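Worked example 3 (structure in, sequence out).
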């Protein structure tokens, strides 16, 4: 039986609904899962009409034929009125995005779906709607009461996990403590073993400073934080190497050399990964009690409403969600509230 995958609307003034609908129209997606769209039905109907997608939407849960054009939609309760304006920042769109995430978490934890795929959101719109979290990863951590979570982007055999996530660059050094680094490396290591079934993962740890700090001449975070944590975790049996200067590491990287790369901050790891992936990377939140993936791009307000968004990363996110969910036991079905 194909797994049910919850797919959120994202920010409906961005390209989220478009890439979600294009993705679930793809035969490769319909072959591997039963998608459930989560968000305002009005949005999906309007975008499907604009895209000339012949889909029949039914409220979740409904019977849908194998391989047909029938798609289930779960409308979150207590939603705000839809003010559809592609390309515009809106608190209403942020509220709808937040409500879809909350409803999808309930769906998966309640056993009615096997995994969650989130369409892109505007962090600013979420904040305008009262969602006080830096991003979806942190919002999901709060909703699931998860103590330790990490953000990882993947493309084929290249997996990059982050120590600090949506942190302003000026604050990265201050946040980079031994406790945080140990926590994030441990979460990434555990996810490789459980979700990817890698028995003894091998991790590369990047330095924070250029040239790995030049022995402390241009930064001491390597000597003060990174090297001691690597040594400590090696003593516990983890296979860790580094710290590597980031520029030299990615210049020489070969596929499959390591099972994951641990980057100290967002752009350090994600710029090379996204260049490597060419629009096919997937964001995975590791450490959650559910499988959550998302595309590697944002809301793209500049092209919203023009019907030209590429669904490739959304398709890969759905495929990754199905694969990772197959390595986890299904949640016990509960009565949905």
């Amino acid at each position: 039986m194909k797994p049910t995958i919850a797919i959120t609307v994202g920010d409906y003034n961005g390209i989220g609904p478009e890439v979600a609908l294009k993705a679930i129209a793809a035969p490769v997606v319909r072959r591997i899962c039963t998608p459930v769209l989560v968000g305002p039905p009005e949005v999906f109907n309007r975008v499907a009409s604009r895209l000339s997608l012949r889909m029949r939407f039914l409220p979740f849960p409904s019977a849908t034929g194998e391989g047909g054009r029938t798609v289930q939609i779960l409308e979150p309760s207590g939603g705000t009125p839809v003010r559809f304006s592609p390309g515009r920042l809106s608190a209403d769109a942020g509220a709808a995005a937040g409500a879809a995430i909350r409803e999808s978490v309930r769906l998966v934890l309640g056993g009615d779906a096997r995994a969650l795929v989130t369409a892109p959101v505007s962090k600013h719109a979420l904040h305008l709607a009262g969602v006080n979290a830096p991003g979806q990863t942190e919002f999901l951590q709060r909703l699931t009461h998860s103590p330790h979570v990490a953000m990882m982007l993947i493309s084929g055999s290249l997996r990059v996990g982050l120590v600090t996530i949506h942190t302003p660059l000026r604050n990265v050094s201050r946040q980079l403590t031994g406790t945080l680094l140990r926590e994030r490396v441990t979460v990434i290591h555990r996810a490789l073993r459980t979700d990817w079934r890698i028995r003894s993962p091998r991790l590369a740890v990047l330095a924070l400073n250029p040239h790995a700090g030049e022995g402390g001449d241009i930064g001491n975070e390597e000597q003060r934080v990174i090297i001691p944590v690597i040594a400590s975790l090696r003593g516990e049996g983890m296979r860790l190497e580094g710290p590597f200067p980031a520029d030299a590491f990615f210049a020489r990287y070969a596929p499959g050399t390591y099972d994951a790369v641990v980057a100290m901050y967002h752009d350090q790891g994600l710029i090379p990964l996204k260049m490597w992936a060419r629009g096919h990377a997937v964001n995975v939140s590791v450490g959650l009690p559910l499988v959550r993936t998302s595309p590697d791009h944002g809301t793209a307000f500049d092209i919203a409403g023009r019907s030209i968004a590429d669904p490739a990363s959304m398709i890969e996110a759905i495929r990754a969600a199905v694969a990772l969910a197959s390595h986890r036991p299904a949640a016990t079905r509960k009565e949905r509230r």
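Notes: The domain at 1-146+288-337 is CATH 3.40.718.10 (Isopropylmalate Dehydrogenase). The chain has a mean pLDDT of 93.
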